[in-house]
# Entry
Amino acid sequence: MALMTGEQYIESIRKIKMEIYMFGKKVENPVDDPILRPSLNSVRMTYDLAQMPEYQDLMTAISPYTGKRVNRFTHIHQSTEDLMNKVKMQRLCGQKTAACFQRCVGMDAFNAVFSTTYECDKAHGTNYHENFRKFMTYCQDNDLTVDGAMTDTKGDRSLAPHAQADPDLFLHVVERRPDGVVVRGAKAHQTGILNSHEVIVMPTQSMGPDDKDYAISFAVPLDTKGLYMIIGRQSCDTRKREGSEMDVGNSEFGGVEALTIFDNVFVPNDRIFLNGETEFAGMLVERFAGYHRQSYGGCKVGVGDVLIGAAAVAADYNGANKASHVKDKLIEMTHLNETLFCCGIACSAMGQPTESGNYLIDLLLANVCKQNVTRFPYEIVRLAEDIAGGLMVTAPSEADFRDPKLGPVIDKYLRGVASVTTENRLRILRLIENLSLGTAAVGYRTESMHGAGSPQAQRIMISRQGNLAHKKELAKAIAHIKE
Ligand code: SF4
Ligand code: FE
# Structure
């Protein structure tokens, strides 16, 4: 099958009968739900852009395993150029959606599972790499969207998975059968899982020998029996139900998270990629997290481009664009945003081949990338709010703006420069509100903090990869110290 169009993608998701709950009710038609649809539209963009000739090199690649052109979101990276193209593609998708477009987690899981299964098979004589290749080519051939589910709910953080009061707080195998395994547990914060055809489940952390049942990785389709999702609330989410496109700020695109429950889900043998080889759980986590930390040097930069643009437009509309401090704030925002991009490109350029042949980013630089992402978008948002002014949170609703009595009054008093309509001024402020405080703040702000691992997770990796011993040797050599 050739690459899907955006419309074909939407219809393919419509056909999957998923079990989804929101506001205490089962969602019968998630594809057309006003709260959920913008998030589906964001993934659709990864299909639409791949159809455009001007983006073909960035959005697609030739799969060495099938010989066919595939969407880059299903590609196994073959070079540092592939790694850099990935980041550039994510920046483009961020610019076109100003939201999380979700499909990267599957791409990052693909590349982490590809190399880890290869090395696990070599050590244990298992058959996981072949299982994964079969699954991967199926996804490439059918241009599927795959969610990558890593984060367990984790219970008491001081206890290992097997030592929790409730054994289900980490997803685990509850039954081993000749034809497969049965698993139970939950994965939290699953962005885009309801917009995916398949989900790859991975362990959430390194594991010891007692956590054998928890060292499990596999893939299942989203309509698998026992799998269901509970949609997370977002700030301002019900504005999407009110029918005011203007008040939402970014009405077309978004991202939605779900707490995903695996209630005795059966996984057939040929869909298993790790099953009890505890020492490879850590490798899988480290590689997936590394790839996803690289990803943030692309996607958040693209969203940052939109926010910087919005702040500059707000300054134009306020008549403040010539003020030197406003110009300087826009420079600072650009500097911070491009620093993140530098990190994304740098960890890609310094990538190395794994034993399996695919390319892995430089892990130290990828963790530095994400560590910066936990900070800079907050400063970019702060500066955008500074430039926008208080009206971004005090402006009347669209309903008031359309009211025959109130509309002309709002139009008169909330005008900035005379040549710009009040409506346009309000629209750009709503976009800044959406990105800094509304539904998109989940993807731009809090996800920058906690997505792909919270800041401390990167600091642990930076301390492991930083090679302090080597730095000490350098200092001693320069100081002519002989011990
Ligand atoms: Fe992709 Fe960024 Fe969303 Fe992760 S947070 S899925 S990298 S857009
Ligand atoms: Fe994310």
Notes: The chain has a mean pLDDT of 97.
